Amino acid sequence: MMPFGAGRRICPAYALAMLHLEYFVANLVWQFQWDPVEGDDVDLSEKVEFTSVMKNPLRARICPRVNSI
């Protein structure tokens, strides 16, 4: 979030950018089927670096959803 600045000099389109990012992520979730990679277990444990990150990064297999009409 640092590129957006803070205080008086904050980006004037910050709210609009956040709205578009939320819309983009929602469309990714809606348009694609997200499955874990075969053989990988989902492990949500964390480790502390500069911020908290996943100990084992999440890997996903992404397939387009098929609309059944």
Automatic annotation (TrEMBL):
Membrane topology per record: Single-pass membrane protein
Top-level division of the source organism's lineage: Eukaryota
Keyword Transmembrane: yes
Signal peptide positions on this chain: 1-39
Keywords noted in UniProt: Heme, Iron, Membrane, Metal-binding, Monooxygenase, Oxidoreductase, Signal, Transmembrane, Transmembrane helix
The keyword Secreted is annotated on this UniProt entry: no
Compartments it resides in: Membrane
Pfam families in the cross-refs: p450
Cited Gene3D superfamilies: Cytochrome P450 (1.10.630.10)
Family: Belongs to the cytochrome P450 family.
Record protein name field: Cytochrome P450
Protein's organism: Solanum tuberosum (Potato)
The organism's taxonomic lineage, starting at the top: Eukaryota, Viridiplantae, Streptophyta, Embryophyta, Tracheophyta
